[in-house]
């Protein structure tokens, strides 16, 4: 069964933060350590900032913040918008699914809607992912993203990120 994918609303912020918390701990504890993951979630997913981000993205034509839900329960989310330095490129800022739902096509549904929403506004979709996050690397490569480089992560020293792009 495919999830319903819709534009996020500020009232989704608490559920989004909890999905992020569970997903980040499942994916990154072994790479970054649980303490860094908890600190990052607390900073990047502070409720007021998250509500503002949702409101801003959904009010723009060049950005999108989506929620995937089943039986009116959020199971994943995705957020994309303009790349800071490249006007023809969108940046996939966040895409996470509850870990107990990984592999069910929810991430694919979110990614497809992101791409469909941004096609025409941008030529490329950019993202960076921790190189040691094998689940995410496999997901992006199976979705047709091409690795175009590497960079150091801002999250922890000596942690590398892969940079990917895909045509829209």
From TrEMBL:
Keywords: Acyltransferase, Transferase. Residues 3-168 form the N-acetyltransferase domain. GO terms for molecular function: acyltransferase activity, transferring groups other than amino-acyl groups. The keyword Transferase applies. Pfam families: Acetyltransf_1 (PF00583). It comes from the Archaea. The keyword Acyltransferase applies. SUPFAM superfamilies: Acyl-CoA N-acyltransferases (Nat). This is GCN5-related N-acetyltransferase.
